[in-house]
Amino acid sequence: MTEKRYRIDGSIYYITSVTYNRLKLFTQPSFIILIIDSLNYYRYQYSCKIIGYVIMPDHIHLLILPQEEKAVTDFMRDFKRFTSGRITRQAKVEGKTELVKTFESAGTETERADYKVWQDSFWEQSVYTEKFLKQKLDYIHLNPVRAGIVESAGDYLYSSYRNYFLNDNQLMEIDTHWG
Mean pLDDT of all residues in the chain? Predict the structure, then answer.
């Protein structure tokens, strides 16, 4: 049984989505670029503002502002479904047969898909004040530092930190004006 999600119009949502069994997929650029490309596509498809993000080895964090009530659920459902297919195809092209077998085994185990890359569902939290938004942005930006991946948040390529503090919009443009 799926738990009912309640939405607050005009809210920003802090979202976490994790790979199946915490598989560390996002350590190579070919998979990370698929995630960034898909985030760019779905932000326009669902008219969502992306206020912050980080792509960690086994999960992503997002701060998004949807324009429609169902957009968060639809955005994440379609994003995860699409990226699962793209990541699986990329793994096949790169000859990563063990990884493809892992995706296939996860799909069989859960009986939800032929190949499974992401855990079911996602975790979300409404961001209700500007102070809380800044806390979540700081958390996102410092996640690679806390994980020991880099020494400084600016050294991590796959985070909105670079947009906010280094004016680097090469990978993805961020909606820094969310009001």
Answer: 90
